[in-house]
């Protein structure tokens, strides 16, 4: 693949999203970046005290890593995978988000 292939057309947008998600999930898996978690960053101190911040970051980071991996797989194998695979990816992403929400409100609480 040449650089001109990546920069031509809307393909570069997918790669930018992939890189952003990869960086975001890496920071969260390391236990940092709680300010990037929607809802947690604007919560009151009393509400934040109810959560284990490191565990919340790691849970969210692992969920984001799953989504990042799906984006990468779908982009790399876009010419091989059938068109219906997009529905499978969408289903896995929705299920992943639901699992993140459930785990954030159960195992991430103190």
Largest sheet entry: none
Strand elements, count: 0
Please state the average pLDDT score.
88
Order of helices and strands: HHHHH
Q: How many H/I helical runs?
A: 5
| Cα-to-Cα separation, first versus last residue | 48 Å
- Strand-pairing-aware structural class: mainly alpha
Low-confidence stretches: 1-7
- Percent helix: 55-70%
**Roughly what fraction of the amino acids lie in strands?**
under 5%
* Overall outline: elongated
- What would you report as the Rg, rounded to the nearest angstrom? 16 Å
Structural summary, described in words:
Helices cover 66% and strands 0% of the residues. It is elongated. It starts with a helix and ends in a 5-residue tail after the last helix. α4 (53-76) packs antiparallel against α5. It is mostly helical. Mean pLDDT is 88; it is low at 1-7. The protein has helices at 3-7, 11-29, 45-48, 53-76, 85-105.
